[in-house]
Specification:
Elements: E1 7-12, H1 14-18, H2 25-34, E2 40-46, H3 50-60, E3 66-70, H4 81-89, E4 93-95, H5 97-110, H6 116-119, E5 123-125, E6 129-131, E7 140-145, E8 148-153, H7 157-174, E9 182-189, H8 193-202, E10 212-218, E11 221-228, H9 234-248, E12 252-255, H10 260-270, E13 275-279, H11 285-291, E14 300-305, H12 309-316, H13 320-326, H14 331-345, E15 349-355, E16 370-376, E17 381-387, H15 392-412, H16 419-424
Parallel strand pairs: 1-2, 1-3, 3-8, 13-14, 13-15
Antiparallel strand pairs: 4-5, 6-7, 7-8, 9-11, 9-12, 10-11, 15-16, 16-17
Helix pairs in contact: 2-7, 3-4, 10-15
């Protein structure tokens, strides 16, 4: 066992304190550290105020081995991290040669001159070193203060995330840490934490003490984490994973950071097939999810956002008589949308959705949250009705996920009568 380091996080930013910016950075830091057997012992958020920052850093340094400072490295006057660290260490600010080289290269790649605001980001406490920034302009700062090592990172999430592997390397090197922690993450959809835990509790499987079980629900997916603290327990971890697969079955979509869209793109690419979308209530979110996946162009050429009845007719040839007779949120119309998208795009698979996202627009026979989904191929087109009465944004998120999951199940030949269909369907026979 190695020494358990005291690692603390100091977040800076008026926007974070005011609630204008939601802090996701410290959560990411904690997750990355945990996967390497390290834990946060304390987290503090303060305004962009030099006195507050200096006071908190001095307090943290009394007990912390490592301080992860996040924010305040930008080019504006309220970015105070470098000057606060200079005061803390009693070192003057000066142009850091490595920071200067990084900023010059960053500007050159963008074909723009280095301005005075950017020059501020070259200034660092003497004796500190940079943490290279792979995606942005602001270099991170690596500073030793007494027995504490301080790593200052930008507040932009993507920039902070790119620096975390470098920070971990430096921490592991200094304290000669060899992490034995291994985390196996399973991604699921359509099963909640309480149901998942209940299934595990009711099973006869004897859960080994060597494997820690954790859940992280984040709409639309839920992550199951199986953590061991030593590689010798790998067989226990794999046995637990196999048990989770047996219990959760086709609700498991993959490992690691797999998403539903990634899974669908991969499955279609393997089969050299393509997909198109016809969206109304989701406003293009399904197509957006697909095109966020690298390599999506192999399987996706076109999607149609047909929000109005007029555009349903003009873009994908939905018969106005169908719309007049059944309404936009109906099985005949959503199937016509799917067929029209297939006909225009010549894709192999389709997803079509039409629903009432709310908060207005519902009726007794079609309440807010009602959605019709059509999916599949021209030869095997299926449709179903779900009722998901949640906030507008969550409705769009969950319907997008459902549609992608139904296509995943169709491609793999998996039974579509899953938990969320049973729970949200107005009729168990709505799949045809």
């Amino acid at each position: 066992m190695h020494k358990q380091l005291n690692i603390q996080v100091l977040l800076t930013g008026n926007e974070v304190m005011a609630g204008d910016t939601i802090d996701s950075n410290s959560a990411y830091m904690a997750q990355v550290l945990a996967e390497h057997g390290l834990k946060l012992s304390r987290k503090v958020t303060v305004n962009d105020d030099e006195t507050q920052l200096l006071s908190e850093l001095e307090h943290m340094a009394q007990t912390a081995d490592v301080i992860l400072m996040n924010g305040g490295l930008g080019p504006t006057v309220d970015d105070l991290t470098a000057q606060v660290l200079a005061k803390l260490s009693n070192q003057p600010l000066s142009i850091n040669a490595d920071a200067k080289a990084q900023l010059e290269a960053w500007c050159e790649r963008r074909g723009q001159p280095l301005n005075e605001a950017n020059r501020k980001q070259m200034l660092m406490p003497e004796g500190s070193s940079i943490i290279p920034n792979a995606t942005g302009s602001a270099p991170g700062i690596d500073l030793r203060f007494r027995h504490t090592r301080i790593f200052a990172t930008p507040g932009v999430p993507s920039e902070m995330r790119s620096m975390m592997p470098l920070i971990l390397e430096r921490v592991q090197s200094e304290w000669q840490l060899t992490s034995q922690t291994h985390v196996l993450r399973l991604q699921t959809f359509g099963i909640g934490e309480s149901n998942a835990q209940q299934l595990i509790n009711q099973s006869r499987f004897e859960w080994p003490a060597s494997v820690d079980l954790g859940f992280r629900a984040s709409a639309p997916q839920m992550e199951v984490k199986l953590t061991i603290q030593d590689a010798q327990f790998k067989s226990d971890q794999l046995a637990c994973a196999e048990h989770i697969h047996d219990l959760f079955g086709d609700h498991i979509i993959g490992q690691g950071d797999t998403t539903l869209a990634q899974t669908v793109v991969q499955l279609l690419a393997e089969r050299e097939q393509s997909i198109t979308t016809a969206e109304s209530c989701t406003g293009g979110m399904i197509a957006s999810q697909i095109t966020q996946v690298a390599g999506a162009s192999r399987v996706f050429e076109a999607g149609f956002v047909t929000y109005s009845n007029t555009m349903k007719n003009k873009m994908i040839n939905v018969d106005p008589a169908l719309l007049a007779q059944h309404g936009a949120v109906s099985e005949p119309v959503v199937r016509a949308m799917a067929e029209g998208a297939l006909d225009v795009s010549k894709a192999d698979y389709t997803i079509a959705v039409s629903g009432i996202a709310g908060p207005d627009g519902g009726s007794p026979d079609k309440p807010v949250g009602t959605v019709w989904i059509a999916y599949g191929t021209a030869a095997d087109l299926r449709s179903l009705k779900l009722v998901w009465p949640v906030s507008r944004q969550l409705f769009q998120t969950m319907i997008t996920a459902c549609a992608l999951d139904l296509v995943r199940r169709h491609i793999l030949g998996i039974n579509p009568h899953c938990r969320y269909v049973e729970q949200r369907s107005s009729s168990p026979t709505s799949i045809i």
